Amino acid sequence: MTDISRRDRLRFGLSRWYRRAAAHLPELGLGGLVTAGGTVLLVQEELIKQLAGGLPTWLLAVFAIPVPVAAVWLTHRVRRRRDPAPRPLLATVPFPDRIDGLAGRDAELQRVKDRALERGVVVVQGAMGMGTSAVAIRAMWDLAGEARRQRYADLRGPDREHPETPLSVAQRVLRTLNLPPGGIKEPQDATAQVIETLTGTGCVLLLDNVSTWSQVEWLPPRVPGAHIVVAGTLSDELPQHADPIQLGPLGPEAGQALLARHIGDDRVTRDPKALELLVDVCLGSPLEIVRVGRWLARNPNVRLQSLVDDLRNLPIDQTLDFVLNLSVKQLRPTAKQLLILLAGLPIAEVDHQAAAALLGVPSAADAIGELAELGLVENVRMTRVRITSAFRDSGTPQEVAAWRRLVEHFAEQAGAHAERLPAEEARTWFAMEDRVLLQVLASKEPAPKTGRALGLIADALETWFRLEQRHEDRLRTAAALAGAARTLRDERVQAAAEQRQCAILLTSGDPRTARRHFNRAAELRVRVESWPAELHLEHAAILLASGDEFTAVESALVRYGQALPGGDAAGHASRLTNVAALLMRKGQTLDHDGRGPEARSLYANARAVLIQAIHLADRADDLGAEAHARELLALACHFLGLDADARANLAQAERLYAGASDEIGRARCLVQRAGVMLEGSGHPQEEVVALLEEAEPRLPPAGVSTALAHLHLGRLRRELAAEHQEAGLAALSPWDGIAEPKQVSELRALLLAL
To answer: Where are the transmembrane segments (predicted)?
Structure first.
């Protein structure tokens, strides 16, 4: 369908060469332009002397004024066509523009508005191309005409084969409502936040392009004083209470009115019967009617009856493809090449800059405009372009060079925006692009020599997902990078990806799985001497989480310190913090064996080491490292009986974790505060329970802190002791069947005794 001839390929190549050369003109600088301009003027002077030598004076006078004026006008016209459109400013994704003049949808539009006022939540359902989004958008403008009361989320993901997961949809909705998306583990966790945020506001929330009901079944059935509209195809079965408003094909009169709007009254008057037949061929689909109308508008000399005669000679299943083929044949080479490249992408949509990167030219605005005019692509979500459904399965192969250009473009953009986080512009960019970047990483056929660019994309996503506390997406990013690097046989990048998965799993309280990824990273590094410093640190953390082999942990920490650069203050702060953790673990073991004085000595040593670590972290301006050191310092103070110091350091650690957007760290501090309060006296039970209930949703599913929180809750809420016992034991499941430290064994015994 989208084959391009050799002649067109040559024309496209020449066009791309010219546009790229023009884009590099500013790189010459002032000196280069003066030199090049002077050379041209000298050549022109000699040429003029040769040409004008034999011309009479009166003829030279005639050309003296018109020729320079014509040259200036021509230069202005060429530059106006060549200059790329200015880059749009990034901002919060706005509600789509109001859509007026919907043909044949007045009744459905009124039903949507009436049901929104009656029930609060409305489902608008229709097959692709039936104008479902247009009806929903227009209804929402009628319900809430002010921008401050409009909320919009487009749920079309970048993966053509798999719709976004319910959790991803819930996170996108929370971000649309200016709520942190990383604080939920399940989609249902967002329900209460949606109710609380929208109740009584008069706002309208439109979830557009929903693929399945399962994506949005977590939504509240009603929000007092607000409206929620779900619009899309919704391929699965809907519950009875949803009662969708179904959009079917347009009626004959409405279809003819829509087609006439595009081709003009004169042509309709000349061929009214042909107009009816063309609408019949489009099967009442507004999308197809508009596409045929746009093609006819671009070809005013084509009689409607001629097109009808051509269509009659084709099988029914080929009639719409016929018009598409006519559209493609009329494309200029650049637009045709872009269509081919978009059809072969493993991602469904890209922004305009990425489309230009695909082509290898400074701007693709003209090509996108040409494709959009014919209905071959859609401009969606500000400056994004998405190929229409007709070409999704065209089977066009992916072009390696174009895909490499796209990956490198994304790497450059992602790195630049990651450096600017948490600025609002950078947040907006990642909010729109993070799923696209994930899809790029997960490509089944990564282009050769893109390992470094994919690594940069993964680094940027790690920064973004850490900021948003989306730890599952952090793990998914690292796993996708490891798979791509394995395919590319890039062992360096693969080792870094395996190492990152190990670190994330350690934070999530799963040392057994973390160990597997650590082993893979270590195998790829071959020699211990070649390990990066972070790998030694993760080795120490795994050893510490997997038992009480303190000598091995100490050796790993020594190697970590040796691998660190001398001026790495944050790295040395982490080293000292882990040394202190080792000392305290040794002290806990001695305490358990009845050797209190020796344990107190170790706690005192740990306290002194942690004060040094805090000083280094503060010097490095590393909030996360300082927060972790203060968290452990609070524990050391508590073991030494300095409860006032313990509470002060916990409060400071909480503030630092909040500043570093680390909700897991803050939740650990809440659990430890609750523990200190329980061991003291005079603290109301409800106050302790409130701390634990605030911490529990923010903790990972597994880990010592999670188990400890459930132990405390089980003791304080005896009626729910069985539930908390089960959850606490599940949190310790990563240690099932492997060696475990004494603190885990003791915690397991206490949970079993609930």
So the answer is: 21-43, 55-74, 120-141
SS (H, E, C) 25-63: HHHHHHHHHHHHHHHHHHHHHHHHHHHHCCCCHHHHHHH
Tokens of 729: 């034991």
d(CA 113, CA 115) in angstroms, rounded, equals 6
3-state secondary structure at position 349? strand
> Token digits for 257?
């009115």
Question: Which distant-in-sequence residues (6+ apart) come within 8 Å of 80 by Cβ?
Answer: none
- Are 259 and 136 spatial neighbours (Cβ–Cβ below 8 Å)? no
pLDDT for 79 equals 46
Phi first, then psi: what are they for 340, rounded to 5°? -60, -45
The SS3 of residue 120 is: coil
**Alpha-carbon 258 to chain mean position:** 37
* Structure tokens belonging to residue 724: 């908390």
DSSP, residue by residue, 532-564: -HHHHHHHHHHHHHS---HHHHHHHHHHHHHHS
- As a whole number of angstroms, the longest Cα–Cα distance in the chain is 117
pLDDT, tens digit (0-9, with 9 covering 90-100), for 287-319: 888 888 888 888 888 888 888 888 777 776 677
**Amino acid found at 110:** Q
**Helix or strand run (H / E) with residue 427:** helix 424-441
d(C-alpha 438, C-alpha 457), whole Å: 9
Give the integer Cα–Cα distance in Å for 124 and 21: 49
- Across-strand partners of 466? none
pLDDT tens for 66-94 read 655 565 556 555 444 444 333 333 334 56
Q: Where are the alpha helices (DSSP H) in 443-510?
A: 451-468, 471-488, 491-507
